[in-house]
Write a structure and sequence with these properties.
The chain is an all-beta fold and 118 residues long. It contains no helices and eleven strands.
Length: 118
């Protein structure tokens, strides 16, 4: 069972940057995919970015391509989301999540709030 704890959210101005971290504990597998999803008030939860635990292959939502970067540090068991050129529409509760490849996101952190002011 994998446990996930997010940190690093907060308030930023439009055009600014924030860095989110996800501490991963428990048993991980090479087939794990780690990701970030977000949910804005009144909206559905949406995919932001993902990375494979073994090879580090990444995937991004179109809305964040070129602005956000996901990475992982296997030695420190961290998953990082570097968010640059932030927009007010990036305001949301950001969740770190894990899945076995090809399955649903089934493990979640508690979420960290990101608020971007215009």
């Amino acid at each position: 069972q994998v446990q996930l704890v997010e940190s690093g959210g907060g308030l930023a101005q439009a055009g600014g940057s924030l860095r989110l971290s996800c501490a991963v504990s428990g048993r991980t597998y090479s087939s794990n995919i780690m990701g970030w999803l977000r949910q804005a008030p009144g909206k559905e939860r949406e995919f932001v970015a993902s990375i494979t635990w073994s090879l580090g292959s990444t995937s991004y939502a179109d809305s964040v391509k070129g602005r956000f970067a996901i990475s992982r540090d296997n030695a420190k068991n961290l998953v990082i989301l570097q968010m640059n050129t932030l927009k007010p529409e990036d305001t949301a509760l950001y969740y770190c999540a894990a899945q076995q490849a090809g399955q649903e996101w089934d493990t979640w952190g508690q979420g960290t709030q990101v608020t971007v002011s215009s």
